[in-house]
Design a protein that fits this description.
single chain; 96 residues; alpha+beta; elongated
Length: 96
């Protein structure tokens, strides 16, 4: 299932891991693990925020997907199912 993982980093923890040089390495490892379809990075509500779209094969994969953001980056993490244009068309066609 295609999902969006939104990770909002704690500002102080983010500052710390940027200063000590582990932010880039940690983010790269997380992205390699998730193999995302797309990943975007911005500031939202004053926090460093990542929007990562990837395939979640099984709900039991949630901990290994989210924990690095919690543990290494002090992030608030949200995971929600999402659709692309083709998924939406397929879903709408099943309605009628």
């Amino acid at each position: 299932m295609r999902v969006l993982l939104k990770a909002q980093l704690d500002t102080e923890k983010g500052n710390e891991i940027i200063r000590n040089g582990t932010m880039e390495k940690g983010m790269q490892a997380a992205l390699e693990r998730l193999n995302p379809e797309a990943a975007y990075f911005t500031a939202e509500n004053g926090c460093r925020t990542a929007f990562i779209f990837f395939d979640l094969a099984d709900s039991s994969d949630i901990p290994k997907s989210a924990e690095p953001f919690f543990m290494e980056m002090g992030a608030k993490v949200t995971i929600v199912p999402v659709m692309n244009r083709e998924d939406l068309a397929k879903g709408l066609s099943a309605l009628g």
